[in-house]
Description:
This protein is an all-alpha fold. Helices cover 69% and strands 0% of the residues. The chain has helices at 2-5, 8-31, 33-41, 50-71, 75-98, 119-137, 145-152.
Amino acid sequence: MKKLLSHPYTVLVTRVFIGLLFVFSSLDKIVDPSAFAQSVANYGLLPSSFPAIIATVLPWVELLCGFAVFFGVSLRGSSLLLSAMVVIFTLAVMSALLRGLDISCGCFTQDPAAGHIGWTKVVQNTALFALTLFLYFSRTTKFTLVEYLQKSGTLQSQS
């Protein structure tokens, strides 16, 4: 397992996939925060003022963490934040499913007719959680912006 966590190509592919996934998932939410607030409210888990706050903040956190993971900057912190978001979202989906709600997940589009939740979403999110944890525990800085800046002399190596 230790070898896998430090394999630069495995970490790179995972970083690119997770980074782009979260960048793209944040875009529609940023463009239409009121529709995203409605998607959050549809889960029926929060007081009425919270969905607007979440819809204002969460997409920007997804965007920043997505870029950080993609470029390998603050990889441990950003992948930990993404892991926490995936767990919370998965618990929300499970709660909605157990309550019999038939709602859109609000992941990549705010169209209420698209992407309804189901147990498949729970399985997908479990895989995403595993990948974000993999990045959290990975030990390579190969192919990261930090490595590039250190090699170019722009950033001093921290010992």
